[in-house]
Amino acid sequence: MIKIENLTLNFDNKKIFQNQNITVDDGKITVIAGANGVGKTTLLKIISGAIKVSDAKIINTAKELFFLPQKIRYPEGITLFEYVLSSFYKNSLKWFLNNEEISKTEKILEELELSDRKNVIIDNLSSGELQKTNLAMALVSDADCLLLDEPTSNMDLINQIKILDIVKKLSQKGITCLIIMHDLNLAAKYGDFFIGIDKNCEFIKGGKEEFFTAENLKRIYGIDFEVTKNESKYNIQVNN
Questions:
Q1: What pTM was estimated for this model as a whole?
Q2: Which among 130, 177, 206, 225 is most buried, taking Cβ atoms within 10 Å?
Q3: pLDDT in tens, 52-72
């Protein structure tokens, strides 16, 4: 569980968050939504510890966090397999990998359908393959909480769905996932809980039915939406 109480953050005398509260349950997909510049990535960085805040009470019971930023600078000239294996060296002075670690990595690559790409230079991977590779690193690290900043950006619909299907399977195994998303229809399909951040950097929170209302979405984005529901499926469109 991740719980933040009375979150307050100012940058250059500008109020970002003021007395905001959230609770993120274990083993769920929590979607963070909102327009650009309202603090979505900042919120993930606060949870990850990359941004320190003094004016908040933060409870984090996750054993291991894995933060996947939107932009990553990949090392040149190494293979997919070498890149994933590098996760074992981050927090230690290891000089070699044992058979158990190599076997674990190979099994994870097989589960993510990356085995046939493991010897490909990372520069030659597609955006979808890169994101699956990053998720492989998260699994190798034994993270039980994933912080994903727009992991499906710049992907076609098929690859977006493949990545989100993987995230869904991870949550079903008990891994907590916080994910920034812009596609509200995909968010409604895959998310369990939702945090919207409006233009005043205030949080609108709730489960699917509570969150996806025309009133909430207008408050978050400043435009009119039409929200329809057919059984458990939502259709969310801008109302021109």
A1: 0.91
A2: 177
A3: 998 899 999 999 999 999 989
